[in-house]
Write a structure and sequence with these properties.
about 475 residues; 3 domains; Lambda Exonuclease, Chain A; 15 strands; Nucleotidyltransferase, domain 5; 17 helices; single chain; alpha/beta; five-stranded mixed β-sheet
């Protein structure tokens, strides 16, 4: 029987099907990590090693993967009152936990006049729910061993701060997750994938995505939710082809699904079968003739901007300029120099929240011009509203692939940018990635946003009777 681990709890919150696959497939069934994925994982491991290097930790010694021996060695250290344990082994029945740190506290328990609480080291800037549930899972295992439930758990964030929380606030949620994990372990066929953010970077993507495409899974339609998929399937609409021609007679036949939503999902299915986006014709949409496009490449781990790119005017034949700041201290001046000669009222297009969030953070400590931020226009929101795409679109590669029909990674993956900075040709690769992304954004503007803004007829089905 496969034991449930903290990793399964972590995975379940992201995707129940991911947790299910991890419970019954061997590690050899996963695809190999890409170079940049392994680079990111190593940074996480190195961060933990650096954090604990100066701490007075002890670590249980046991043969590799002999977790029973590891649990016995851990219990010996706990009973002996070691102040701080690193990589302890906690197991109970069908569960196994390997918390980063256990910290000794004063108070009675089955161990004596002391007990322990769980700390987990993370590379995120703030606590997330999946991380908290992982700590609660470890804490419940620890409580069974020491005969006392700690009042608190904690996450060590990447800036070294300790984020404490009350265990009792999350026990019910953790119990629910563990119950579901046991069900998935016993009934692996009860789990189904659902296309969502993160699927393209999952180590099971070469398994799930082909399976979903083969059966025409409804989650591959833009705008689909798990609830809508369930309602449609109960109404007899099982595949994308079914949905493309689904015209139920009345609310009951469509499972009381909102008629406007159903029309949009149906158009999404039609776009999927066409293999290209269907522009939403919007006669009163704002035109973006006088605009430039700003783009950033970031290193989320280090909270740094690695490169700013500018395309002005916002066309595929616009002038490309860039700046590659070498430190956080150089970022603001690099941005000011890059944008200094732009017309004062020019619209500044960007994609997603990164640029605006970066500008807001720096505006508190620099002489930021409030008028600059007022000129920002997020292309991500505009592009999503301007067309129905042949697949769900969230990140820039999704829009490039499904809006332009191009390989979105022809200049590399943005997640690899931090890795490039350590390579001999790093500056050239960053520059080429900035240029490629800006040209893709300009093409999306021309083919989607401009087409929508200049349309002079209403969108299909707009004046039809409700489904």
């Amino acid at each position: 029987m496969r034991r449930i681990t903290g990793t399964h709890v972590y995975s379940y919150v992201k995707c129940p099907h991911l947790a299910s696959l991890d419970l019954y497939l061997k590690r050899a069934d996963r695809r190999e990590p890409t170079a940049w994925e392994e680079f990111a994982a190593k940074r996480g491991r190195d961060f933990e090693d650096v954090y604990v290097a100066d701490l007075p930790v002890v670590q249980p010694e046991y043969p590799e993967r002999d977790f029973e021996a590891g649990a016995a060695a851990t219990l010996k250290l706990l009973s002996g009152g070691s102040p701080l344990l690193h990589q302890a082994v906690l197991n109970s029945e069908d569960r196994l936990g390997l918390p980063d740190l256990l910290r000794k506290l004063d108070g009675p328990s089955d161990l004596g006049n002391h007990y322990y609480e769980v700390l987990d080291v993370k590379t995120s800037g703030k606590a997330r729910g999946d991380q908290i549930l992982q700590v609660v899972f470890y804490t419940q295992l620890l409580a069974e061993i020491q005969g006392r439930m700690p009042e608190h758990g904690a996450l060590i964030l990447k800036d070294g701060t300790e984020e404490r929380f009350e265990i009792a606030d999350y026990v019910a949620a953790c119990d629910e997750v563990v119950t579901e994990l046991r069900r998935l372990r016993d009934e692996p066929d009860s789990s189904r994938p659902f296309f969502q953010l993160g699927c393209g970077g999952c180590y099971h993507d070469e398994r799930c995505l082909p399976e979903m495409k083969e059966r025409g899974d409804l989650s591959l339609v833009q705008g689909m939710s798990k609830g809508a998929r369930a309602i449609l399937e109960q109404s007899g609409c099982q595949t994308i082809e079914d949905l493309a021609t689904f015209h139920p007679a009345g609310a009951r036949a469509r499972g009381n699904l909102d008629s406007t939503l159903l029309r949009r999902l149906r158009r999404g299915a039609q776009a999927y079968l066409l293999g290209k986006p269907v522009v939403e014709l919007r006669p009163r949409a704002e035109k973006l003739d006088r605009s430039a496009i700003l783009h950033v490449l970031t290193d989320a781990f280090a909270d740094r901007v690695l490169g700013f790119g500018l395309l002005y005017p916002a066309t595929v034949d616009g002038k490309f300029t860039f700046a590659l700041p070498r430190s956080r201290e150089e970022e603001w001046q690099a941005f000011r120099d890059l944008t200094a000669k732009l017309p004062a009222r020019l619209v500044l297009l960007h994609f997603g929240a990164s640029l605006r969030r970066w500008h807001e953070d720096h505006a508190f400590t620099t002489e930021a011009n409030p008028a600059m931020e007022a000129r920002f226009v997020d292309m991500q929101k505009r592009l999503k509203a301007a067309a129905i795409y042949p697949a769900p679109v969230i990140l820039l590669p999704d829009f490039v692939k499904h809006g332009l029909g191009k390989d979105p990674l022809h200049a590399g993956h943005a997640g690899a940018a931090a890795m490039w900075t350590l390579e001999e040709d790093g500056d050239a690769r960053l520059t080429e990635k900035l240029r490629a992304d800006l040209l893709d954004l300009a093409a999306l503007k021309a083919e989607i946003l401009d087409a929508s803004a200049f349309a002079d007829s209403p969108p299909p089905e707009e004046n039809q009777a409700q489904a």
